[in-house]
Each structure stands twice: as C-alpha cells, then as structure tokens.
Amino acid sequence: MPIHKVKLVVLYKRSARDPEGETIARELRKMGINAVKSVRVGKIFVFEVEAESREDAITIVRDLAEKVRLFNPIVHEAWVNTSCLE
Amino acid sequence: MGEYFMPRVAVLKFPGTNCEEETVYAVREISRVEAEIVWHEEFKWRMWDAVIIPGGFSYGDYGRAGLIASWSRASRELVEAADNGIPILGICNGFQVLVELGLLPGALTVNIDGVFHAKWVKVRINNPKGPWLVLAENGQIVEMPIAHGEGRYYHPEPHKIVVERPWIEYIGCNPNGSVASIAGLGSSSGEILGLMPHPERAAFDVQVPYPHTAGGKLFFESIGLSLRRGW
Amino acid sequence: MPLSRDELEYAVQVLGRKLSVEELAVLEAEWSEHCSYKSSRRLLKLLPSNAPYVVVGPGRDAAAIRLFDDVDLVLVFRIESHNHPSAVDPYNGAATGVGGIVRDVLSLGAKPIALVDALFLGDPNDSHARWLAKEIVRGISDYGNRIGVPVVAGHTWHGNAYNRQPLVNVGCIGIAKLNEIVEGFVEPGDPIIVVGNATGRDGLQGSSFASKPLSDGNEELAAIQVGNPFLEKLLIDAIREAVENRLLKHVKDLGGGGLATAVVETAAASGVGATVYLDKLHLREKLEPVEILVSESQERMLVVPKRNCLDKLIAIFDKYGIEYSTIGYFTEDKLFRAYFKGKLVVELPIELVVNPPEPKRASEKPRDWPPPMPDIDIPLEKAGEVILKLISSPRIASKRWIYEQYDWGVGGRTVLPPGYGDAAVIWLRELGLRGVAVKVDGNPRYTKLDPYIGAALALEEAYRNVYVVGAEPLAAVDNVNAGNPEKPEQYWFFHRMVEGLAWIARELEIPVVGGNVSLYNESAHGTMVDPVTTVMVVGRVFDVSKTLGYRLRGKGVLVLLGDTYPELGGSELLALLGFEGGSPPKPRPALEKKLSKLLRVVAEKRLAYAAHDVGVGGLIASIAEMVACSGVGATIDLSSVGCRECRWFEAAFSETQARVVLEVPSEKLDELKLLARKNNVPLYLLGYTGGDIFEVRIGNRIVSKIPVEKVYEVYEKTSWEKFMGVD
Known about the structure:
heterotrimer, A: alpha+beta, three-stranded antiparallel sheet, 2 helices, 3 strands, B: alpha/beta, nine-stranded mixed sheet, 26% strand, globular
C-alpha cells in the first residue's frame, strides 16, 4: 500500500479566544505592519499514513485525531487534508 | 580627591518578564553593585555598566520564546551595547532573547519531550572567560535549578562553536535534549553569556534545599568583581 | 441555571413588576450557588474566623493576616475550585482557575507570590481520566509559569469517582504592606473602570454552569474560556504598580457572574448604588446588553481610583498596553442601573440582588453508612509484597510528573520546593530570614466515610504538614467540594463537612478566614463524586535557614513522635485489599498542638536532619517516601512503635494522626528525649538510617528487605511512566 502524507491543522475556534495569535497581531501593528488584520496560531501534525487511497488516509487521521483527542472539539477546530505542505 | 562611581547593572524588563526582582536582589546583595529594573521602553545602554536579561515569558513566549522581545527597540539597544563591549547576561528567557537577536549562535527550541521541566541540575563550566565567569575554574561543577519548556539548544555544528567560547554543559542528565548537552554559551570574549539554568535562584543558601549547593553565587560574585575592577 | 419558580415569584413580589431579560440574567447569575452561597451561607457562619492577627476575614475576594507582630507585612490568601470547567476543557478550565485565584489575591492589592493546587483525579488506568489529568496539569503549568507565580506545594488524589469529573482546587498567597491593602470602600461619584480583556461571548453563563450537574451533551460550549496568562501578568504588574503608588481605593475580580456581580457586590459592600453604561465597555465583538452584563470573559478587573488619581492610573495601564474603559459611577440611591444606548435595561435594588431567598435544604444521612470495617488479616510473609504495592499506589507514589512541570522556583523565594518537605516554605527576603509555610490537604476517602471527621482531618493534616517543617500554623482557608444540595442525602455530606471543619478549627485554634464552596459535583446520572474538603493552612517561619525537609542524611536515628493505634478504617491498605469501610482515624488535636510546639524547638535547635509526617499509607509509606526521595537506606523495627494491641500490619499501615518521623543526629537524641518528655509527647526509637537497604523488622525477625534502588524505582517510576510515558 502506498504512503500518503496527511496534514492535521488545529486552531482555536473563532468563538474561543486565541491569546497567542491576538498578541502577535497586536505587536505587529505596533511595529507599523498594518496590513495584517489578524493572526491565528495553532498546530500542524504531519502524518505518513499507509492506506489504499488518499481518502482512506484522511479518514484514518480524522478518526484518530478525534479518538485520541489531538484536539478538543469543545474549543478547537481541526481539519485534515493532503495538500503539499510538509 | 577622586569621586568613586558605583557600577550600575540594568535588569531589563519586557512585558511578561518575571524574574527581575530576585535578579536585582542577587546583584545588589552578592555582586554588591547598584542594580535597577529597567522597563524595556526606557532602556538606553549608555547609562549602564552591564545588562542582565532575566527569565520569564516575555510577551507570553507567544510565537516562540524570545521572538517578540527581539522585535523591540530595546533589542536594538542591546545589539549596540554588545558592539560596545558592555557585559550582557541572558538567563533562561534572556538567553532565548540573545539567541533570537543573533548575539549568540544557534537556537533554543521546545524540550525534546515537549514538557516543561523545573528541577535542580548539575552543570560544568568549560573554558571560562569574560566578566561573568572570572571566578570560575575550568571544569568547575555547580548546581542550579532549571525551569523551562523551550530550552533545547540546537546548532548544526555544536562542537565547532564551543572551541573558542566559554560554555556550560549539563552533566549527569541532559534535561531537554540540547546538542552537546549545552546549557549555556558565551561570546568568544565571554562578555555576552546566556544560560538556561537560573543562577538567581541558587545565589543564597536559603534558596537551596538539602542536598544541593548554591551554584549561582559564582556568576554574581564574578560580575561584581569584574565591574569593580573596571571591566 | 434559571431561577426557581419561588425565586422568580419572590423577585416579582419585591419589585411589584415583571423583570426585563437583562434583570433576569443579573439575578440568575447573582443568585446562583456559585455567587450567592445561598445553600451554604448559614452553615459557613459556624466556622470560627477570628484571631488578633486577622486583618481581613471572610467576605472579600481574599483574606489577610498579619504574620509578625513587629512588621507591617500581611499575607493575603484564598483557595477556589474550578471543577466544572476542568471536566469539559481540562487545559483551559484548570488554567483559568489559576487566573481567577491570582486576581482574587490581587484584589486586596497584594503581590501574588505562590500557588498551591489540590487535584482529585481519576484512575491512571482509565484513558479519559489520564487525558483529563495530563491536561489539567499542563493547564496549571502553562498559566502559572507564564504569570511568574510559582506552584510551591500541592496535593494529589486518584480515585474512580473522579474519572469524568475531576476536582481542581487552587490556592494563592500574596504579600503586601499593611497600608497597601486596598480598602475596598467606594463612595457615590466614584468612577467604575473595567481593565483587561475585551469582553466577549466566550465567557457566557459560567456561574450558572458551575451550579448545575454536568450533562453528557455539548451544550456547555459557550462556557469555555481560553486563558491569556500574558495579559494576566500585565494586570498583576499594573495593579501592583498602582497599589505601590497608592492610587486605588477598590479592586475586584470580574469572576463568577461577570460585570453585574462585580459591580453589585462592590456597591453592596459599601452601601451605595451603581449606574453603568453597557455600551461603554470595550468589547471583542458585538454583544447584546444581557451578554455584556453576565459574560465571564477572563482577565478583567474592576478598579476604582482614589480621587485625583485617575490620570496616573491610566498612564500605568497605557504603559503596559492594557485596555480599559470607564463605564459608570457609584450612586447614593442603592439601586443597580444599567443603560444600553440610552435605554434603561436594569433597575434593581442592590439589596434584592445580593440577598436571594434562602432555599430550604434538607439533610439526611444515607442509610447503612458507612460500610463496616471488614475483618482482615495479612500473613507476615507478604510484608515485602504489600509494602511495594503500597508505595506504587498512585495516591502515595511520587507526584514528580506533576510538580516538575510547575515552575516552583520563580521569584527566588522557594526554600522548600515540592519533593523536599511536607509543606512549602517561602522566603520573605524583605524581612531578613523570615518566611511563610503553606500546604493544602484533603482526603476524600475519609470525608466519604465520615464527612465530619474527614473534613476535620483535612485541616489537621495541613496543620501538621505546616508545623513539621518548623513553622507555626496561623490560619486556614477551605474549599468544600460536594454534591447536589437539593438532594438531602448529598446535602448531608456537605453540612457534616462544614460542622467537622468548624469543630477542629476551634480545637486547633486556627481561624478559617475564607473559603469557597463547590456544589453540584454530580454526574448527569445523579451520582455524587466523592465529596471532599480541601484545606490550605499557612504558618510563619522565623528563620527559613532552619527549615526541616524530609530528605534523609543517612547517618541518624529514626524516631517516631506520637502514639500509634490500630486505625485502618478508610486506609490506603484497606483500599489496596479492595475494601471501603470503617471509620477514619480519630482526630487528635490536643497532641497535634503539643507536637507543633515541639517541632518548632526541634527546628530552632537543629535537633533533626529530617522530618516527615505520617499520613496516608501509615508509618511504612512515610519512611519509604523519605528513603525514595533521598536514596538513603533505613532500618526500622515495627515492634518499637509502642502499640501493644496492634497486629503487625496495623503497626505498619495504621493511619493514626498526630505522628511525625524524625531523623535525629545521635548526639542530639538525649536532648530530644528530654524535650519530648517535657512537652508530653510520646517518643519511640524506630531504628536508624544509612546503607542501601530499606529493612523492616519485628524484633530480631527481618520481615522485609528492599534495596533502596527498588524503592526509588517503584515510588518514582510508576506514575511517571503512566503519565509521561508514551500513551
């Protein structure tokens, strides 16, 4: 079976706060970088998954992320894809 | 009759710095020179004989430890101070700031196990030189506490950078996975020194529970002597 | 949680009209258990809270005592729970619990210098419980470390009852000069300023959420708050700077119940009214007036400057880059009014808001409770095996995986960090060698079997831990964690715990100067978690250089102070054998007081190398802990504990209170014996320290011989691997 790279991105939900992102955005503005309107900070997990298809690989990662709580659905939003980013 | 000027040490405070009070206290009591907490916006290097960037979480360590502090105006002052040979000590978060500023080589990143560790460690002082280590003997072993989540020192060629420089090495256990067990590192002259352990928490005997020893005294005694001698 | 029908009728009757949506929300928040203590107020009055050195007693955000007669430094402290949020989002729930307690201490103007935590966690073998435990610890670590307040001591329990609903109690101590203490008295015309975080929808309905049982669904979504420790740190620095410059007459945390509660409680305490303009508050997003009133967004404080100090105060907020808004002022007329865009949305008498009708709570002892003490026997040959099993119990084994994630040393004041002594000792370097000791304790197995005795023992143990390091215990604060007060069989536990605490506080002469009550700790299915009272005791130290830790030197005599009785009810040994039953050990306040006096002399005259109390797991656990922490061997003789009616396992594992183990330099032994006799404290020679074996004998018969390395491994590695190992 082929190996697929699968990316899981975890961010705080927009309804929750993101102190890290907010602080960075504010400090950037203080430096005069006004084009940046907001920053969100989260985590990226990159998995190498053995699976029949990309879709299967995504399903495996999505399921495990929920099962072992790589994110907490109460405060986080997360998505999975196989885009090129390492 | 000449006037005697007491040397003055600035302990730099960024938003989120949190070890400034005990650091000032240690400088006053042990180095026996003047020390003041200086808010980062008011810091002008020309007013001081030495600078300490104390521990803490400048700007919450958001982004990366030391990152946002390195964007500040005070950091440009620090670079100038370094160019002019002013002794600079970076403790923990201060070490991270010095590395982010490029005043010391390498990078400090998340501990190898991803976990914050606060514990007593033993370190060896190698190739001591410069104002912060004048009283240290080569190979001297001292004890201090560490307390950090991002203290893993990384450099692609660790053994090359320590040839000339003073450096501090974890012995016994390497608590964070640093390359070559690097706990601290100086500039080649030793005027700039950064380290992860906290000397200000091991500067007085009452800070030291049995069976440890007050390994931080050395740094404060050294800078006191150096400044009084007119470093 | 909506108002009950009686409460609503009462409000309508008093007002003589219907309530607006906004008014209803204000009453719902303020009349919740969390804010109003409506089910507990009357009971809590039982607790003695007076002593000549008490500066601020119960009623404000934190209590304050004077530590030494000859200096004007006061200690400010409080303990609080964050149980419900920690069950849903353990990381942020525990983190924001730290934030709240620190702001309470800050409210009196004090500089926060130390934190303690009491965690009641699930079974380490349950994966959900393990996840909760790890995230709770990470939350406290991330928040406490970033604000620069060290976590210096703690208490950790593990039990199945907490698998889904952990209890997270956090205490904070701070220091201030006597004349820095913010008076908390406001006058008509004073402005109302809110400083800190922008208010958002994130904190909606926290308090009423904490006042109902958890459900299985996801509807608590709105109550999750993400902590911002960086902002909290800025608030600490800014408020302290304002206090040092004497700019403030009042500071209050915007905690449970949000803006409305903070404003109303402030006005009530000063006998005035308040008018606020909700549209003037800095917001994070567009909010309805009702949301602005009760949102519990974190890291916000209400401040009232002294006359003519507003400009200086604002300059400090600007320096730290903290947002603020002036939203109204206090008034003469004892009404709480809120306007939104020119429209009056709330007009309530302050008296009504802060005085909900007291609900009738029935109390009924559960039938056939507690289960009887089972008849047990353990053959002597099993001694070694039982000892190893005991020290690997998660309740006894090392908590290093927790406390090494906490920055226990920031501030440079920590004399005795976790893992080195029975209580933390903090150096007050502004007073030379003086210091303060602090510890928190609570045993849910005891409180579940007998809430009266269990709660008493919580205070007694914290008191003991404080005197064992050589400190003089002075005062306590408590956190009662109980079930649903509407159910008589659950309310009984709550009411008995408070009574037991009141009794022991009088016996030990320790004022309970503040506290917190957490009710509704029950699951969606109506099962109560094991109720527990945690108590934090603070004491003073005259010379921190003479503090007694529990690390052995390996060259002394082992001495037991205090008598041993066969008391295995509710013990760790019984639990290991699979039993729950019997009565907890008897409180022994009279002997504790003698020991407390004696230990201070022992520390002062340096008569011991090390000292450790006997608690959960009994004498064997106590000595094994000393052996494991110091890597030094010990040999003890169980027949020497002076309990004739004890069988071997009772001598070894009984949890009799008022006992302390000392490692004494042999040349000091005679002096110690004399001193003990003079103070009427029983003293027994247990054995000696040294070598690399932990050896237990009965007379000449060796019953167990365990290499120190093995003791260390079992004590240190079991929980470390469970929590820190690969999952």
